[in-house]
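During the second year of the project, the team shifted from modelling isolated chains to modelling whole assemblies. The rationale, set out in the original proposal, was that interfaces cannot be judged from single-chain predictions alone. As a representative example for this report, we include one of the complexes processed in the last quarter. Its constituent sequences, exactly as entered into the pipeline, are reproduced here:
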Amino acid sequence: MATTAPRESISPEPSRRRFLKRVTGLGAAVAAGAARPGAGAAQSPAAVEKPAPDDPTKELGGPVRPYGERSRFEKAVRQQFPTKTNEASWTFTPLHESRGIITPSALHFERHHAGVPDIDPSKHRLMIHGMVNRPMILTMDEIHRFPSVSHIYFIECSGNSSREWAEPTAKGVQGTHGLTSCSEWTGVPLALLLKEAGVQQGATWIVAEGADAAVMTRSLPMKKAMDDMLVAYSQNGEAIRPEQGYPLRLVIPGWEGNSQVKWLRRIKVVDKPYMTREETSKYTDLMPDGTARQFTFEMEAKSVITYPSGGQKLPGPGFYEVTGLAWSGRGKIRSVEVSTDGGKSWKPAQLQEPVLRFAHVRFRFPWKWDGQEAILQSRATDETGYVQPRLADLVKIRGVNSNYHLNAIQSWKVAAGGEVSNVHA
Amino acid sequence: MSTPRTLSVAGIIVVMALVTVPCALAQSPTYGVGRVPTQEEFKAWDIAIGPDGRELPPGSGTARAGKAIYDAKCAVCHGPTGNEGPQDVLVGGKGTLNTPTPLKTVGSYWPYATTLWDFTNRAMPFNAPGSLTPDEVYQVTAYVLYLNGIVAENDVIDARTLPQVKMPNRNAFVPDPRPDVGRGAKPASAKPGKK
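Output from the structure prediction step:
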């Protein structure tokens, strides 16, 4: 089978170099350790700090502390794409280190258009106005008084995998698929707030606006707003992280990340889309004939194997648990299949229960590697019957310049030596 | 109906808002929280400009006047003539969208001129967002349209004329036809085509 090798890897080097420059007094050994691409291997912290005791039962442990941190031995970090600025930029979630379905808030991918705003929640307001009978302005304290709900939803940037259309580009799953994350979100259903405001006849869209320096704005259909949009203030049991929209954001189950406006300050109820920059010049999908698809909100069913994945190395033949994530913007994942022969044959993977609508689903597949070259793939089917397509089939319709919404089957090649790499197969 | 809650800011303004928006209740009807925004708040926040330009503020500008602002505040990121970058290229790309190397610029891709005003007003310049006056936004909008050959150097761009500007790529946007691939795909008739 024909495979092509990655053209270049997405390296975390630039941001880490900058970071290391800021941190003085770190030795060369630390720099070497910290700059190693996120391969998932444990890195010795010995050069950084006092080593851990050989026998922790023979030494008094650390004291209690008001806000916890992960073990100093854990090194999974977000990886920045080498953009021209650090404010209009994005970082990828280290999916190769993920377990289960929840993304730790600190590792949730980022996409900002003009930096992360520093917002005092006591000064933050949400205004709801336009075609409503009762325009409202709400403080955060007031928003907390409304009846609340919690849901586990994925958020995927529609640019996830966008470098992979023409050829395999990123080295590992962090670069190919790291613009999706999954959290428990808590907040107030937008429909409840809109009913309080009294939506007028003829109102068919809302305009949602953020309080960042880009004042990021999207037009969104009223139907979805009344269906399941969430005005969220909590993520995984605590206030939403600043990078994710603190103190308030829209969460729109299954829709492209950009539509889920962070730092939400305003909802204007209107009768047509406002054709903002983010829904015209960006986040539109250019087709080979020069037309562009607009308001392509739903993230179609997608899956990826997170282990083994690009950049990792299998130590030798034997048993491996192939595992990964699947999700669909149209609801629930019905099944995931795994192929170890580049798509010639497929076998069902086990899905971790509960399988939730609009959430990451963890799948697992026992595999005995015989030491020969193998191409690993996963393929998701959602509750609508939609089957995750092959890349070639997507490209046939959309060409290679539509940028957004690439949900094709991902291929990882396991070489005879155990090295895993990103290929188009 | 319950009476307005006294909030931190100015109760007087709330009362004024109630007078000027007589149909609006002070608080949400079911849960009794929140208040009516003040006229000042409406005015300060209602900045989104739709294609009909209804929310555009007073003011005007020409490309001739916009050049100085562009040179001073925009060229560093978008290039001396809008073609150079390093950030988004604003000019050129006409006729490239259906080629292997499409160049999406204001002139070749953006369907509405109001979007250029809206985005410039809310988010530009990158290092000083929201710092341009309405006249300056009209001027620099006119200049970028002029660089793309869409308006003339002395055309006056204002709340009336901006929504009438015809962008070259206005009719190339199509609704979402997905699912378009594989099992579950819509029939071929639902596939995209030029409107």
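Residues 302-423 of chain A form a domain with the Immunoglobulin-like fold (CATH 2.60.40.650). DSSP finds seven helices and 24 strands in chain A.
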